[in-house]
Design goal:
Elements: H1 11-40, H2 49-65, E1 75-81, E2 100-104, E3 108-109, E4 116-120, H3 127-131, E5 140-149, E6 152-160, H4 170-177, H5 193-199, E7 206-211, H6 217-231, H7 233-239, E8 241-245, H8 248-254, H9 257-260, E9 267-270, H10 271-275, H11 284-291, H12 294-304, E10 314-318, E11 321-325, H13 327-337, H14 343-364, H15 371-379, H16 381-390, H17 396-405, H18 407-414, H19 420-426, H20 442-455, E12 463-466, H21 474-482, E13 488-493, H22 507-514, E14 518-523, E15 525-526, H23 531-537, H24 541-544, E16 552-553, E17 561-565, H25 569-581, E18 587-591, H26 596-605, E19 611-612, E20 623-627, E21 636-642, H27 644-649, H28 654-662, E22 665-673, H29 679-682
Parallel strand pairs: 2-4, 7-13, 7-14, 8-9, 8-12, 12-13, 15-16, 17-22, 18-20, 18-21, 19-20, 21-22
Antiparallel strand pairs: 1-2, 1-5, 3-4, 5-6, 10-11
Helix pairs in contact: 1-2, 5-6, 6-7, 11-20, 12-18, 12-20, 13-14, 14-15, 17-18, 17-20, 20-21, 21-22, 25-26
Bound molecules: adenosine-5'-triphosphate.
Adenosine-5'-triphosphate binds at residues 172, 175-176, 185, 187, 190-192, 195, 211, 213-219, 494, 497, 527-528, 633, 635, 663.
């Protein structure tokens, strides 16, 4: 690659580098001018105080967005048009394209002439940078990728688009292998064609990505959010975009990507953040049952069982007059409304219809009541009494408390849906004294959310990105589906990495529970994990997800795998960590959860500085001790896995957990074991 320190730069290449550096300098200067111009704009033109505040905040955002980050290259690629007279026909809308375009994180233009110096990677025209290839050059002749160090342009790599195989990009490989410290980085300079197709899918389309470990699902989901916000800025700024991830440690890990792409207004949350954190646990078997979509029917029935037949009619006294509705009339009004709307609005409508009928009675007697009288009657004590008796005000907690504590009520609600054993499993052994003091599990939280939506509509966001979606129950997916009911979703996951008792077996089911129509795309080219390591981990694949295609790796990774039988994985992990720390990059020591304390003590007594990953904390130490159940979605340059057999034995889907754990390494994986390896992993070499 021209410009690399180990390769002498030829004179003509030196000239190219010098010209490109000059373009970088000109672009930086133009960006500075754009920023100065934006800083000089005044919000005084606003007509009123509120508009002025709004305008000021927009201008502040604009100025912040135009900041030049010295470490982030202003552009990372360039495309040269094919301008040969016998070159390809260019679509009319593209005929005014420049002969050369630079692609970067944002638009930069020359103030005087408005000439584009750098085009935003999300602009339609930039698509060619990611998609053009020798078989479809899209009207371009050459793609040039740039290498940067500390914001300085140091190298370039040319890919002619006029025929021939391009071969692997060294800039891409180096970008992947660049040692990691701290949170996840963006991949905007090296998004691959199949990833780009997902990133740029239309907003109304829900896309679902099945991707083997390290194929870039998370990265693609985040870049898609940035792309959608750029392309549909106004709509999505209003409706909102939300990223849902498995835990806080994961969210902390991905938190820097969107701000680096200029998007600071995207919410990130765990399912617990959205539905409420659990205050109790329960056996996986019960949680799995509560997570099934059948529970939605039980809940609907349970809620509507609260609407009772009226025993008495309604009598409203106004002045000296008494107005009556017979019990059968009240019953007819309730029956007409029952189940046709949400419970809460049905209740409000019931009160209004009762009041309306009273008004009809008044009119018959020659009175002329107006709408205000109808409201007064709807709020009057007699109507409220009927309302409480027939259509009581309910909270989700009241309904679920009753369902899980009252066997008779559960039987009625679950009739034809849950069998006797299932009902028995749901009932609390020792119910709390009331719904107020009840403790709720994670599965209960999804049930409460469903009930809440049956009572009052849940507002929808514009777009939802759901990562590690394979681990969500049907009821949790329904809860997320409500939050993008009028929008769309990007659903990311890997069936093989499903570790919950309710993990999805098919993406079609996931989309159904989410309530979204969508296409499923499969990514199988792994960027993170070297080939030797990926092949080793993939020995587990036939046992955890037999239908999935075997993943391939972009990098062969000779020498990346080291599997050792040791006398004591706890003490040997200290030595392995020390060896790994002698190399550049991050080190993750992934251990069975039950052994985490012992490993921490061993690292401490050896004086090895380290962090310990917790469910709520990221941790940016170079050496991180990672309990196996928290490793999902994360990656380290060097990974040491201690005692795979114990990781596999610790939970029902332990082999899937082991598959996750073995696929976290970017550069090297060291496996330390005293016990025999699980037979599925030992394979032929056992
Ligand atoms: N096009 C790319 N260019 C450079 N790096 C990439 C590219 N695609 C993915 N990567 C890198 O590969 C690694 C894995 O990506 P990511 O975490 O998004 O994968 P994933 O599919 O979500 O993995 P997992 O299922 O194991 O969590 C990251 O370091 C990411 O930056």
């Amino acid at each position: 690659m021209p410009g690399e320190p180990d390769e002498p730069v030829q004179p003509d290449q030196a000239a190219v580098l010098a010209a490109e550096r000059a373009h970088l300098a000109a672009s930086r200067a133009a960006l500075r001018r754009m920023r100065e111009h934006a800083s000089g704009l005044s919000a005084d033109v606003a007509a009123d105080w509120v508009s002025k505040q709004y305008l000021e905040s927009l201008l502040d955002q604009r100025v912040a967005a135009l900041a030049d980050h010295p470490d982030a290259p202003l552009f990372f690629g360039r495309m040269d048009r094919d301008v040969r007279p016998d070159g390809p026909d260019v679509p009319a809308e593209d005929s005014d394209l420049p002969a050369v375009m630079y692609v970067g994180r944002r638009h930069v233009h020359d103030g005087d002439e408005g000439r584009p110096l750098v085009l935003d990677w999300r602009a339609p025209v930039s698509r060619a940078f990611y998609q053009a290839g020798p078989t479809e050059p899209m009207g371009w002749r050459l793609r040039r990728r740039f290498g940067f160090q500390a914001g300085e342009l140091t190298a370039f790599e040319d890919e002619p688009l006029d025929g021939g195989d391009l071969g692997p990009s060294r800039i891409l490989t180096e970008e992947i292998e660049r040692p990691r410290t701290g949170p996840m980085r963006d991949i905007v300079a090296t998004i691959q064609p199949e990833q780009d197709a997902i990133v740029r899918a239309d907003l109304p389309r829900t896309v679902c990505v099945q991707g083997a470990p390290g194929t870039g699902k998370t990265a693609v989901g985040l870049h898609r959010a940035a792309y959608l916000l750029f392309t549909h800025r106004e709509r999505l700024a209003r409706a909102g975009v939300l990223i849902v991830g498995p835990n806080r440690a994961f969210l902390a890990y991905i938190s820097a990507v969107l701000p680096a792409l200029g998007e600071v207004k995207v919410e990130q949350a765990t399912v617990d953040d959205l539905l409420g954190a659990p205050t109790a646990g329960e056996p996986a078997r019960v949680a799995a049952l509560k997570g099934e979509a059948r529970m939605a029917d039980v809940l609907r029935k349970a809620l509507w069982l609260h609407v009772r037949k009226p025993v008495d009619g309604l009598v409203v006294t106004r002045g000296s007059a008494r107005h009556r509705l017979a019990d059968h009339e009240v019953r007819e009004i309730a029956a007409a409304l029952r189940g046709t709307t949400r419970y809460g609005s049905g209740r409000a409508a019931f009160a209004q219809r009762l009041a309306h009928q009273i008004l009809v009675r008044m009119e018959r007697r020659g009175e002329a009541p107006d709408d205000r009288v109808q409201d007064q009657v709807a709020r009057s004590a007699p109507v409220r009494r009927v309302l409480d008796e027939v259509w009581p005000k309910l909270t989700p907690e009241q309904v679920l408390y009753r369902l899980l504590s009252d066997a008779d009520f559960l039987r009625r609600a679950a009739k034809g849906v849950l069998d006797d054993d299932e009902q028995a499993a749901l009932l609390w052994a020792k119910p709390a004294r009331s719904h107020r003091s009840a403790a709720w599990t994670a599965a209960d939280r999804a049930l409460l959310d469903e009930l809440n939506d049956l009572i009052e509509r849940t507002p929808s966001l514009g777009h939802l990105v759901v990562d590690e979606a394979q681990d969500l129950s049907a009821m949790q997916l329904r809860a997320l589906g409500r939050r993008c009911g009028t929008g769309s979703a990007t659903v990311l996951g890997d069936i093989a990495q499903g570790t919950t008792a309710w993990s999805a077996r098919s993406w079609k089911d996931v989309l159904t529970h989410l309530g979204q129509d969508g296409d499923v795309t499969e990514l199988t080219l792994g960027f993170r994990v070297p080939g030797t390591v990926l092949d080793y981990a993939a020995r587990l694949l036939p046992h955890v997800a037999p239908t999935l295609e075997r993943p391939r790796s972009l990098r062969p990774g000779a020498g990346a795998l080291d599997v050792r039988r040791v006398a004591d994985p706890v003490t040997d992990a200290v030595d392995a960590a020390r060896e790994a720390l002698a190399r550049p990059g991050s080190v993750g020591l992934i251990v069975p959860d039950a052994a985490a304390d012992a490993h921490a003590a061993a690292l401490r007594s050896a004086g090895l500085e380290h962090g310990v990953l917790g469910p709520d904390s990221g941790g940016d130490a170079r050496l991180l001790l990672v309990p196996a159940t928290l490793a999902k979605g994360l990656e380290y340059d060097h990974v040491i896995v201690a005692e795979p057999a114990a990781i596999a034995a610790a939970e029902a889907r332990g082999l899937a957990r082991l598959y996750v754990v073995l696929t976290r390494a970017v550069t090297s994986l060291t496996v330390l074991h005293r016990e025999d390896l699980p037979a599925e992993l030992a394979g032929r070499s056992m």
